[in-house]
Each structure stands twice: as C-alpha cells, then as structure tokens.
Specification:
13 helices, six-stranded mixed beta sheet, binds pyridoxal-5'-phosphate, alpha/beta
C-alpha cells in the first residue's frame, strides 16, 4: 500500500495535536564501537515534546482526539504510581484544557518523586488505592465514573493503558514517520528494536505491514510470554483494521519477531544486565534510559547483535519514561 493511502486513512480519525514530529534519529557511535557493529541508530521518542515526553503521547493523540470529538471534559486514566501513561495523560489534558483524574493501584507515598512530582505540577487529581489488584482498581474507576457522571461531568476513560485499536493507530503513524525520515535523511535502517508491555507497538507492526514491511521489527517483551502477547496484539490489530478498514492480511508471526527471553522475572524487575544497561548508557552516550522498558530492549538489542551480524543498520526505539527514573534509582 502507498504511504498516501495509509496517511489518508489515518487523517480521517480525530486527533489531538500533541507531539513534535518527527522525533530525531541519530547514531550511537560509542555503542557501535563497543559492540563492533556498524549502524546503531536511536529514535528519540523520549523527545516527543510535551510533559515528560515518551511514546504514550502517540496513542494519546488518537485517544484524546476521540475524547474531544465525543465532547468529554474529564479524562480518567489508571496505572501504578510511577505510570508514564498517567503523567503523559496529565500533560496532554493540561494542554487541551481537560480535567484529568488518575486511579493508582499504589500507596500514597510520603514524598512526591518522579512522575508523582510531575503529576502534581500538571494538576493531575490522583486517587491512591494502595496495593489492590487490577480488577479492584477497575471497579473503583467504574464507580468514580458513575459518581462524576451523576454530577454532570462528561467523562472519557482511557482503557487498557491506551493499548486499544484506537490507541495503536499512533504507532501505525510512527511507521509512516520512520519511512519518511529514512527517505529524507537517507538512513539505511533495516531492523527496529522496540519495547512491548501489553502491546501498544502492535500499531507499528500493523502500519509497517500495510506499507509492505520496509522494516524488520523485533519486539522485546518486558512482561508477557510470546503467546500471551500475540493474542493481545492480534486483538488490537483486529480493532484497528475495523477502524481504518485496511486489512492486515497476514499471520502476525510473519510481521514481527517477539522475544520474551529478556524479561527476567517480569515487569518492573531488573535483570543484572538491564540494571547494568541503565547505568552504562548515560556514561557512554549521555542518554538516560529507565529500568522497566528501555533497559531490557537495549539488552535484547545487544544480545541479538552479539549472536548475529545480519540485522543491517538497527534502530533502537527510545520510548521515554525518563521521569520515572527519579522514583526508581537509589544510590547510597
Ligand atoms: C516508557 C514506556 N515504554 C514502553 C511501554 C510499553 O507500552 P505497551 O504497554 O503499550 O506495550 C510503556 C508502557 O507503559 C512505557 O511507559
């Protein structure tokens, strides 16, 4: 499919203008030298340009575009205390003049640090439920929604961490951005290394497939097994197909390689290698990466290029989350 056809289909969806496009791409020369590999690029989606930045703003463009089109005046978002999505939603809501309420399955901490500090400055209204399950958090949010609706608020809930058919369209748009950028800057990028929590980057897989697979995509899972993720991603892509009316038309495994071998004990738990990567990247490249997503993707990228040399020029998607570092790192 042509770029124009995908761009036209995407442009028909309501979008809130939040990002600075395109985010920069540059080489990581010191890492190239360290790994004896020619062509390691980084796509700086940490620099999306609003609030704490990060890739979540891409899904929020479509989700909040939909909220505005529906006449919403209040956004409800869920997540852990240091959630990057909650901070990004707070910043986007501030820009769009919306009230934003977050429901956290976390204890209210004595100190505002990391994203909690930014959330406060962004005017986010936070409800801390303590250590409850995701189900309990969702029930609380549903009750709160009812209560606020009864008070006359027009509510819009951001579901599933923004990883829905609508939310992933932001990353289908990223596929277009990458193709345009590679053409304009004559970048020889062949393989993309990207993070996957609950599957938001399925949109990149979808967009890339619609464009005839200009890139090979390697997803590094930080939480779920390959089979669990494949199921989530297929469901999101099916919703996106329904919205855009553009068929994906191929088995998921032909469109992406999902590696679930770098997650260690799962979400929020560093492996020794990922912990080391968080400390090494700033010293080698002057760039901060956080513990949960970007560190494990970097370890995955290194592992892959140590095993094989035929990936072509690779590009590491820095998905942001810098602000959560302040709540994550402790030094004596
Ligand atoms: C910085 C960062 N990178 C990557 C991800 C993964 O996104 P997803 O859960 O949509 O796969 C997240 C999710 O919160 C994130 O905050």
């Amino acid at each position: 499919m042509s770029k124009e056809k995908l761009a036209t289909a995407l442009s028909k969806q309501p979008q809130a203008e939040l990002l600075l496009f395109p985010t920069p791409i540059h080489r990581l020369r010191n890492m190239e030298e360290e790994l004896s590999y020619d062509g390691i690029y980084i796509k700086r989606d940490d620099l999306t340009g609003l609030g704490p930045g990060g890739k979540k703003l891409r899904s929020l463009e479509f989700i909040l575009g939909d909220a505005l089109a529906a006449g919403a005046d209040t956004i409800i978002v869920h997540g852990p205390g240091q959630s990057n999505l909650c901070a990004a939603a707070a910043a986007a809501s501030a820009k769009l003049g919306l009230r934003c309420i977050a429901v956290h399955n976390a204890e209210k901490s004595a100190q505002y640090e990391g994203n909690l500090l930014l959330n406060k400055m962004l005017g986010l209204e936070s409800h801390f439920l303590g250590k409850v399950t995701q189900g309990e958090r969702e029930r609380y949010a549903a009750e709160l929604t009812e209560k606020l609706r009864a008070e006359g608020r027009a509510l819009y809930e951001i579901k599933k961490g923004g990883t829905t058919g609508l939310g992933i369209l932001g990353y289908a748009k990223l596929a277009l951005e990458l193709v345009d950028q590679c053409e304009a800057q004559r970048l020889p990028i062949k393989t993309l290394f990207v993070p996957v929590g609950n599957g938001g980057l399925a949109g990149l897989v979808y967009g890339n497939a619609l464009l005839g697979k200009p890139f090979d995509i390697v997803m590094i899972s930080v939480e779920y097994s390959r089979s669990e993720l494949s199921a989530y991603m297929r469901a999101c892509i099916a919703e996106a197909e329904e919205i855009l009316q553009l068929p994906f038309g191929q088995p998921l495994e032909d469109a992406v390689t999902i590696l679930d071998t770098y997650r260690g004990e799962g979400w929020g738990r560093n492996t020794p290698e990922s912990e080391e990567a968080v400390r090494r990247m700033p010293k080698r490249e002057g760039i901060f990466i956080e513990n949960i997503y970007n560190s494990k993707v970097w370890v995955g990228l290194e592992g892959c290029i140590r095993q094989r040399k035929d990936w072509g020029a690779v590009c590491y998607l820095h998905s942001g989350g810098f602000s959560s570092l302040f709540g994550q790192m402790k030094f004596d």
